[in-house]
Design brief:
alpha/beta; Rossmann fold; Leucine-rich repeat, LRR (right-handed beta-alpha superhelix); 21-stranded mixed beta sheet; 10-stranded parallel beta sheet; 49 strands; 17% strand; globular
């Protein structure tokens, strides 16, 4: 597997950062780049290194500067030094080093010991051999050790540095006098390398005086940008010590590594981490996330899912899953409020080509996985999904095949964990070793218990330890559980013990302020009590939330149950369904002891009595779910309630007897409430009210007394028409959520009195016509969300003063005709989103005053005709998106003034006829999309002057007749898409000058007759798309000189009859659907993927044995071939020996295939011979003998004799006394599928085989194998493994079941199954 070690792991070792220009200044070019050799890792797990292991954890200095003192020391550099110091950036200063012609060991050590090197390239930099030798060493460190290098070009042209020309070159020539050729060569190489990092020069400034004035004006801002950039890079590269105190992580990762290695570059891997609470599952996942998240496109760690997303745990309702997926995408993409999140297909659409690392922590329901990671196809190659749970059933139900059970640490590791928390080191202090060992033995190696006990014993004397141990032994005796953790509980005073029980039974996961308010009357000092519990490791407080570990929660609840085992009505809290039902059903008993009910059964409790709460006179905290409890029991609810959480409440109004006087928190989501109560109620204690998804709610009560209300959630209350004017009395209101209140017509002007409002969400308030002007008086408002307010016709003046300073989002405001002129006053505005404003006709001229505007999104502004000429004043504009603006006619000439414009999207601007010639002034333009501009006749002749252009898309420009020859000047162009340009007659010869072109798409250019011969000059070309090029008869022979070409697509090139006789350079993909050639006409030495799917005219291997022998050398030379697709080749009779590098062989529907040339030696192969009914017995035997960790499938009538244990049906027994067993034993399994018996499965249903292994009647393990589509009368073989070291039963029972990811109610019958022990990994034809 040496050539296919998974890229996810490989990336962690050979990651390469690509620099980008960090400055918008004319005087400077700032760039950084980290360079490492891109090595291929060996497949052995012993060679897999921690991705941070090669990074230095010791750093002498943060930054090493290389500069010519006379040029920069007394001006620019001095300001840099000052700014660096203010940001705690340590800069190496060489004042005490005596300069000479060569750099000594001290300076080399300083360069290598600095995390970043900054090269200040100035006019006289090359006059100093000292500077040049420094540069040589810096660039050496960059290439060899991945040193991050930043370059600042100070009043010097990068081209002069690269080529040693101009004044810089003259100075360099003088320095080179008398120097050896080797010295000069090294200097030139270093200068050329450092110059390539940048690409921005000062030639556009008219005079030196103009340059100096420009510099003085912007110097402070520029220096701050440099310092910020350096600070960000230091933060990114800073070695993490978050896991320095962890013990045993190496062994945990070694256990996980075999699963990690299942991830190769062609698949998505899901791993389940399973184990009891407190054993360290989350810690392992955080370790993986910390180490590997930087090596994927996107990453997210969603923690405490069971607690944070309880709604999802209780329902698979579409809208709830949608909300969880939205939260997932929000965290993954770092978007606070994703717009237009309307269906569950968004995650797949956004992520299908992205590599992601997703960790779902504390999952307790399959629906939580289904909402965010249902199918592998949602994610791009090399993605890793990790699901953490205590429930193995969750993983099985989610179709997760790779499951890692977390075991307890070894005794030595447990001792180290305990010592870390007790003594702050990995070993015991003198005199404590025996005591420490006894504690570890009593705690039974549970990591959570070790941490808690270590914190408890920390700082104690030897005598204190001796006195505490007997109490610990007493606790251990409780039912044999790991109750030792409660010794910390016993050390608390009675007040703090009671507080801990309140949290365990009801307030775990609650916000600190709610807890403090609810318990203020029950405890003397709640704040101090919480602090004590945190110090004792009983709870943690992060982000304003209280969190208690699950094991502590369960043990705390056990103590409460022990208050009265047989009479639950005498306990303080009820958490179990049985106890809750018993108390609610027995309304005659004295239940006055109960102060809290916390139903976590998600609606499983049934109680029909209207008097359920009659005897619960002291009930203060109530949390129940669903409609199982009679809602009329609310007539008898306690008047002392402080927390009322009742989802899916069925009454339309609270009874008149209900008194919310003491309520701190009221949560009634998804209720049938139409109003809360009729008369004005005292609500002075109320801090949070959640009525979300109460779709029948028509009005809110008078809130004039709700002066402490902090959070009001009315999202999805679609019948709510207005808010009460008393909303302004909620002077402490911080968050108001009105999302999807689709009938809300107006906001009362009194909202301006809510002076502490910070977050106001009106997303999808589709009936809202206007925003009151009083909103502009709320100085604290930081986020006003208005997108998709489709009836909103205007905005109040000065609206920009209350929206989020850097971002205004009006997406989907389809009735909005214009913006207020004052929008230009938003000088801090960086992003303006007007996408979907289909009625917007124009932008105000003042938009040009938004001098910091970086992104302007106008997609689907269907009525927009033009942009104001002032848009050119937005000189910091980087992204302008006008896609789908079908009425847009022209781009203003002033757009050329937007010198920092990098992305311009004009796709689907069907009325656009031309671009202004000023586009050439957009010197930083990198991406230009003109696709589907069907009226565009020509491109400006100067288009090639956009020297930094990297991507140009003019596909589907059906009126475009020619491409200007200047395109050849865009030497940085990497992607050129010209597909479906039906009027294009020829491609200019100058395209051959595009030496950096990597992708060229000429698909369906029906007027083009031939591929120009200049294609050979595109030396960097990697992908060439010529599909539906109906007039193309052949490829120019010069194409074989393109060394980097690895993807050539020729689909439906109906006129093509031959390929060049030698194409040695196509390295990855060749797909010719209608090509009629012989395979020996092609010589593809570096081929990785070869597809002749459905090439029914292709004669692959004539039956002549001599001819087959001639083909063997050809196949053997494809040493990199990993995937071969031959599906649908109806005339294919035989296959030659195939290379060992092959991982996937697809030969489905090769109906004439009879013979296989040799055995398959790759132990990780997937073999698909579905519907190859003519395979001879020798071929079937070869497939049966192939040992594969994936699967193999071929037509078969019964289980082959080579399987030692065979049985009819879906289970088979294996006698262990006949086998040689080790710590773990590998088996080859097979199943023979029966007919479907009329069950209609979707044709593309992807199946998995679940193999459950039983021993002595107990389940030992279970694994899942994906086998693609299931076909009746076919044999499927795959590998399974079980730990057999501790198996005492004389036999194992293997049970098989076929499951479908998209079919829940049906199963496919298994006719026969078989098992064969695998003694070793095969290295030759003797597989067993």
């Amino acid at each position: 597997m040496a050539s296919s070690t998974n890229d996810f792991i490989r990336k962690s070792r050979s990651h390469q950062e690509n620099g980008s220009i960090a400055s918008s200044e004319i005087l400077f070019i700032i760039e950084s780049e980290s360079h490492q050799e891109n090595e291929t890792m060996a497949s052995s797990s012993s060679t897999l290194l921690d991705p941070q292991s090669s990074l230095s954890h010791s750093c002498l200095h943060h930054v090493f500067p290389s500069f010519h003192g006379a040029d920069v020391r007394t001006n620019f550099l001095s300001h840099i030094v000052k700014e660096f110091k203010s940001k705690a950036i340590d800069l190496f200063i060489d004042n005490d080093i005596v300069r000479s012609k060569s750099i000594g060991p001290e300076l080399i050590e300083a360069i290598r010991g600095s995390r970043i090197a900054i090269v200040f390239l100035s006019k006289n930099y090359s006059s100093s051999t000292w500077c040049l030798n420094e540069l040589v060493e810096i660039m050496h460190c960059r290439e060899e050790f991945g040193k991050t290098v930043m370059s600042i070009f100070y009043e010097v042209d990068p081209t002069d540095v690269k080529k040693q020309t101009g004044y810089f070159g003259k100075v360099f020539e003088k320095t080179c006098e008398g120097k050896t050729e080797e010295e000069i060569r090294r200097w030139k190489h270093a200068l050329a390398e450092v110059a390539q990092i940048a690409g921005f020069h000062s030639s556009n400034c008219r005079t030196v005086e103009h340059l100096l004035n420009f510099f003085r004006k912007n110097e402070a801002e520029m220096i701050e940008d440099i310092a910020t950039d350096v600070s960000n890079k230091l933060n990114l590269s800073a070695p993490s010590n978050d896991f320095d105190g962890l013990v045993g992580m190496e062994s945990r990762m070694a256990e996980l590594m075999p699963l990690m290695l299942e991830l190769d570059s062609h698949e998505v891997l899901k791993i389940g981490i399973w184990g009891p609470p407190g054993i360290g599952k989350t810690t392992i996942a955080r370790y993986i996330f910390n180490r590997y998240s930087r090596y994927v496109d996107l990453s997210v760690f969603m923690d405490n899912i069971k607690t944070k997303y309880a709604k999802t745990a209780c329902s698979d309702d579409y809208s709830v899953k949608l909300d969880l997926q939205k939260q997932f995408m929000s965290q993954l993409t770092n978007e606070k409020d994703i717009k237009n999140f309307s269906h569950l297909g968004i995650a797949k659409d956004r992520l299908k080509d992205k590599s992601v690392l997703v960790i779902l922590d504390d999952v307790d329901r399959p629906v939580q996985v289904e909402a965010v990671a249902k199918e592998n196809s949602w994610f791009g190659h090399e993605s890793l999904i990790i699901v953490i749970t205590q429930d193995l059933k969750v993983l099985k139900a989610s179709g997760i095949n790779h499951i890692h059970k977390v075991n307890l640490p070894s005794y030595d590791e447990a001792l180290q964990i305990f010592c870390m928390h007790a003594f702050g080191q990995r070993y015991s202090k003198d005199g404590f070793i025996e005591l420490a060992c006894e504690v570890v033995s009593l705690v039974e190696n549970l990591p959570l218990g070790l941490r808690v006990m270590g914190s408890y014993f920390q700082g104690m004397s030897e005598q204190d330890w001796t006195e505490a141990l007997p109490r610990l032994r007493t606790h251990i005796g409780r039912d044999g559980e790991i109750a030792s953790i409660l010794i910390s509980y016993d050390s608390l005073c009675d007040e703090d013990k009671h507080l801990a029980l309140h949290i365990a039974c009801f307030f775990n996961g609650e916000s600190v302020d709610i807890v403090e308010c609810c318990l203020a009357k029950r405890f003397l000092d709640v704040t101090q009590g919480l602090r004590v519990l945190a110090e004792k490791s009983i709870i943690s407080m992060k982000w304003g939330k209280i969190k208690m570990a699950e094991l502590l929660v369960q043990l705390g609840r056990k103590l409460v149950r022990e208050q009265s085992v047989s009479e639950p009505g005498k306990r303080q809290f009820l958490n179990d369904a049985i106890g809750i039902e018993e108390v609610l059903s027995d309304y005659k008993a004295d239940n006055s002891s109960v102060i809290g009910i916390n139903d976590e059964t998600c609606g499983d409790i049934e109680c029909t009595s209207e008097r359920a709460f009659e005897r619960l006179s002291n009930l203060q905290f109530l949390r129940i779910h669903g409609d199982g409890i009679n809602p009329r029991s609310m007539n008898h609810i306690s008047q002392k309630l402080r927390v009322l959480c009742w989802s899916s409440f069925q009454m339309t109004c609270f009874p008149s007897s209900f008194n919310p006087k003491f309520l701190v928190k009221l949560e009634m989501p998804n209720s049938k409430l139409e109003k809360l109560w009729k008369k004005t109620q005292l609500l002075s204690n109320l801090k949070r009210m959640d009525l979300s998804y109460s779709r029948r709610l028509k009005e809110l009560p008078d809130l004039s007394t709700a002066t402490n209300l902090y959070d009001l959630d009315l999202s999805y209350c679609s019948s709510l028409v207005k808010l009460p004017s008393s909303i302004g009395n909620a002077i402490n209101l911080n968050k108001l959520d009105l999302r999807f209140c689709s009938n809300l017509v107006e906001i009362p002007s009194s909202i301006g009195n809510a002076v502490n409002l910070e977050i106001f969400d009106l997303h999808e308030c589709s009936s809202l016509v206007k925003i009151p002007s009083s909103i502009t008086t709320i100085a604290s408002l930081t986020s006003l969300t208005l997108h998709s307010c489709s009836s909103l016709v205007g905005l109040p003046q000065n609206i920009e003063t209350v929206t989020e300073p850097h971002h205004i989002n009006l997406n989907g405001c389809s009735s909005l005709v214009k913006l207020p002129y004052s929008i230009g006053n938003a000088t801090k505005l960086e992003e303006l989103d007007l996408s979907g404003c289909v009625s917007l006709v124009e932008l105000p001229f003042s938009i040009g005053n938004a001098i910091n505007l970086r992104k302007l999104d106008l997609t689907f502004c269907l009525s927009l005709l033009e942009l104001p000429s002032s848009i050119g004043n937005a000189t910091k504009l980087e992204e302008l998106d006008l896609s789908h603006c079908s009425s847009f006619v022209e781009l203003p000439f002033s757009i050329g003034n937007a010198i920092n414009l990098q992305k311009l999207n004009l796709s689907y601007c069907s009325s656009l006829m031309e671009l202004p010639s000023s586009i050439e002034n957009a010197i930083n333009l990198r991406k230009l999309n003109l696709s589907y501009c069907s009226s565009l006749v020509e491109l400006p002749s100067c288009i090639g002057n956009a020297a930094k252009l990297e991507e140009l898309d003019i596909s589907h420009c059906s009126s475009l007749v020619e491409i200007p020859s200047s395109i050849g000047n865009a030497i940085n162009l990497q992607k050129l898409k010209i597909s479906h340009c039906s009027s294009l007659v020829e491609v200019p010869f100058s395209i051959g000058s595009l030496i950096n072109l990597e992708l060229l798409n000429l698909e369906n250019c029906s007027s083009l007759v031939k591929l120009p011969s200049f294609i050979q000059n595109a030396v960097s070309l990697q992908e060439l798309e010529l599909s539906e090029y109906s007039s193309l008869m052949g490829l120019p022979s010069s194409i074989q000189t393109i060394n980097n070409l690895h993807e050539l697509t020729l689909n439906d090139c109906s006129s093509m009859v031959e390929l060049p006789s030698i194409m040695r350079n196509v390295g990855r993909f060749l797909k010719c659907l209608k090509l009629e050639v012989l395979l020996d006409d092609i010589n593809l030495e570096s081929l990785e993927v070869l597809s002749f799917s459905e090439c029914s005219l292709l004669e692959s291997y004539p039956e002549s044995p001599t001819y087959i022998q001639e083909l063997d050398p050809w196949m053997g030379r494809i040493s990199r071939l990993t995937r071969l697709v031959l599906s649908g080749m109806k005339n294919l009779v035989s296959l030659p020996p195939l290379p060992d590098s092959l991982f996937v062989l697809e030969a489905e529907n090769c109906e004439s295939l009879e013979r296989l040339g040799s055995s398959f030696r790759n132990a990780y192969m997937m073999l698909n011979f579905r519907n190859c009914f003519k395979l001879n017995q020798e071929a079937r035997d070869i497939i049966s003998r192939t040992w594969t960790s994936a699967y193999a499938v071929f037509p078969c009538r019964k289980v082959p004799q080579c399987f030692t244990y065979r049985s009819c049906g879906s289970s088979v027994k294996v006698k262990l006394n006949q086998l040689a067993l080790g710590i773990s034993t590998k088996f080859k399994a097979c199943i023979l599928c029966a007919d479907s018996d009329g069950v209609n499965f979707p044709p593309l249903s992807q199946a998995s085989v679940c193999c459950s292994i039983m021993s002595g009647g107990n389940a030992r393990t279970a694994c899942y194998k994906k086998v693609g589509r299931v076909s009746s009368g076919h044999l499927y073989t795959f590998r399974v493994e079980i730990e057999t070291e501790e198996v005492t039963s004389p036999e194992l029972v293997f049970e098989f079941e076929i499951q479908f990811g998209n079919v829940n109610s049906e199963t496919w019958e298994i006719n026969e199954c078989g098992i064969l022990q695998i003694l070793e990994v095969p290295h030759d034809d003797s597989h067993y």
